[in-house]
Amino acid sequence: MAERIKGVSLIFACGTALFADGYANGVISSVNTLLTRIYGSDQIEAHNYGTTVRSVTFAGTMVGMIIFGWLSDKMGRRFGMMTATGIVVLFSGLSSASKGAHGSLGGMLSMLSAMRFLLGIGIGAEYPCGSVSAAEQSEGPAISKNAQHRWLALATDCMIDSGLVVAAFVPLALVWIFGEDHLRVIWRLSLGLGMVPALFVFFWRLNMEEPECYKKDCMKHAEIPYGLVFKRYWASLMAISFVWFMYDFIVYPFGIYSTTILDNITGGTDSLTVIFGWNVVINLFYIPGTTGGAFVLDYLDPKTTLVVGLVLQAITGFIMSGLYVQLTNHIAAFAVVYGIFLSLGELGPGNCTIVLASKTSATAVRGQYYGIAAAIGKTGAFVGTWVFPPIINVFGGPKTMRGNTGPFWIGSAFALFSAVITLFFVKPVSHDGLVAEDRAFREYLEAHGYDTSMMGLGLAPDVHAETMQIDVEMDGSSKEKWERENLIPTHSEGLQDLVEGGKFKVESKDYGHEMLVGDGDVSD
């Protein structure tokens, strides 16, 4: 039991930082509402703040995903995770301290936008570092085989959604505490409190080691054969990236329904407690889907769950579009259907894109593979925010029935199309699939003439490992086995205290790979 708890704890130590990322992404919406209340919409729009902060956060997230995808593979998962968490802590704090020269509003908004860009790098970095590491820890020996996908989803997508819920609740709680006459304190505290979960995870990760499969099969000290990698993985990468892109793309139009619910339920009130309170309720709709879907993953498998989730979500979207008038006249029923829709999104693409993207490539390139898929997916959200407003206008504008329903027909159709792409092009994953893929990847590289002897950490010069088995042959007449901890003898002088004269042969059996490291005279 203790080993199982430790194994699950490692998964959450890797993935829980996504809670901080969900919080940072979610809280900015409430902060923007507060800034508009304080300074007025005309002043905020005069500085083009809304467009700027949305664009720079996206850009920062993309930079983080791509750069840290490479760093995760070449520098190590732990290095990437610790750096990402540090960035989130630092720039969450600096965001809350944003201030313009001589108290200027433009300067403050510019600093806030700059800090959001840098924070976005940390947010993006967690995807190819934390999520990938959590996937690798999910197949550890202490994790039940039939619970591997479940723990991964609970430690990643569920953490993001939980962060969104807390991000909606914190401003509400601060309004309760300080009242609506102290909004400047509330928006700064709302941003600054994002440091708390990130700091907690930072210290939780301090004593972590690299996942075992990274120790065995990384290319930290080897040149990555990108040509062979592309040839093996381009099709599966494009398929999962497309599905991720389409999911994030269609999330935008369906998000419009939250405004419909709020306007109908609240009667267009200006009360922040009412607005923030219902924002918490809407974000809570995500939780049943992501938690319930996590348990479905190990029974249906991630690919099947993704197809089922997309189809059911599309059907629900069609129902909401076709019965828009009737549902908006009965807002309780509308809210229920909308909640089901959001939950299905998390059950399907929300959980499954993370699991599939993190488990369909080899350890040596998993960070870069995942980073590219996540970046393309995030591009979908960015494109959606710019494309759908013109689409709404083409359908008649946001105040017309066609303007409100048209984008949902399009979004639901895209969901069905994504289900078809998944069915025919997305690679399925199984339990213990990472080990099998790493083995197959090695065989693939060797078949194409690539020397795999430098893969893993155990064979790198001057790198310490846990245990090395050393076979020593003396003049061909005797043989002794030596067990040394925390030593890889990469030069003959490393054996002087083992053998006096004669021949030696050193074989590395660490991490399950047996290959020749050195062979020669001790006197060399």
Automatic annotation (TrEMBL):
Record-annotated membrane-spanning stretches: 53-72, 151-179, 185-206, 233-255, 275-297, 304-325, 331-357, 369-388, 408-426
Main location: membrane
Alphabetical list of InterPro entries matching this protein: MFS_dom, MFS_sugar_transport-like, MFS_trans_sf
A Pfam family matched in the record: Sugar_tr
Membrane topology: Multi-pass membrane protein
Keywords for the protein's UniProt record, in alphabetical order: Membrane, Transmembrane, Transmembrane helix, Transport
GO cellular component: plasma membrane
Domain of life: Eukaryota
Localization per record: Membrane
Entry's Gene Ontology molecular function annotations: carboxylic acid transmembrane transporter activity
Keyword Ligase in record: no
Domain Major facilitator superfamily (MFS) profile: 10-430
PANTHER family, per database record: CARBOXYLIC ACID TRANSPORTER PROTEIN HOMOLOG
The protein, known as: Metabolite transporter
Organism of provenance: Macrolepiota fuliginosa MF-IS2
